[in-house]
Amino acid sequence: MRCALCGRKAEVKLVRYGTSVCRSCYPEFFRGRVEKTVERLRMFSKDDPVCVALSGGKDSLSLLHALHLLGYKAKAIFIDLGISGYSEGSRKVCEKLCSDLNVDLHVYELRRERGLTLSEVSRKVRRPPCSICGAVKRQATNRMARELGCTVLATGHNLDDEVAFLFSNLLNWNLNYLARQGPVSEAKFKMVKKVKPLCFLTDEEVRIYAEIVGLEVFEGRCPLEGKAPLHFYKRIWNELEGMRPDVKSSFYKGFLRKLKPLLSVDEGELRSCKICGEPTSRDVCSVCSAFMKV
Asked: Tens digit of pLDDT for each residue in 150-185?
């Protein structure tokens, strides 16, 4: 089989696209898919300053790498939660890529900002670390993007992530979460626009890109992570994809086209937290509430 782009021997079979490409052309194919998503969903333009939230994993690093080579004005942010043996490794690979690309990396350190690491606050308030982690990262990335003058915050969520979240919310009929799920969340009161340029690319497609372009990624899993059902849901959908190629994309796009327009978000009126000033639907945001109990 020949590469659909250059005619040389194909090495990467793209079943759901009905084509194959060689390893040399795959990065071009991948970046083309990213750019198509950005343009079709009007996520941002080449003139918009974009903040990319890095985690150290293949998805966010591949996103920054692709956007940079496509000519977008990308800055990078990293949230250091002070998780021993994990945050250091994640931060290191983010710093390396940003140095290689000559992209500014801005770091939020939880201990410096709030006086405690994630492990410490979780232990003191007796709450699962994941319940605090999500709130901290959402607030910190939004604040940093806004303060850096970026109009858009981009995350590395891929199709597998989106399908797993969607499946979980459907199983539990979390209508408010379903209403908020999607590749674009428009800006509102102190909240910058949030986008997911990799939302139509699978986990495997991102992995191949990271491998071919030689990205150094952090492979470790968070030691505080519990038994999240999302990993199990991803395995289920990988089996389905093996039997029916492109079922993930069909499921996700069907949701966006048929169900999401029927749902409405009920998150209350946003206001400034009385303590930190960040947007919240309550008088005191969930992050400040957690740290107040320490």
From this structure: 999 999 999 999 999 999 999 999 998 999 999 999
> What are phi and psi for residue 275, nearest 5 degrees?
-100, -55
Count the Cβ atoms, other than its own, within 10 Å of residue 192: 22
Q: Is the pTM of this model over 0.85?
A: yes
Tell me the domains of the chain and their CATH numbers.
30-292 (3.40.50.620)
Cα-to-chain-centroid distance, residue 114: 24
Q: 101 and 216 in contact (C-beta within 8 Å)?
A: no
- Residue-wise pLDDT for 113-131, tens only, equals 999 999 999 888 888 888 8
DSSP at 139: H
Three-class secondary structure of residue 174 per DSSP:
coil
Of 80, 33, 4, 2, the C-alpha closest to 208 is 33
Please compute, for residue 160, the number of CA atoms within 13 A of its CA located in the half-sphere on the CB side.
19
How far is it, in rounded angstroms, from Cα 146 to Cα 181?
A: 21
Alpha carbon distances (Å) from 105 to 51, 98, 100, 191: 10, 6, 11, 21
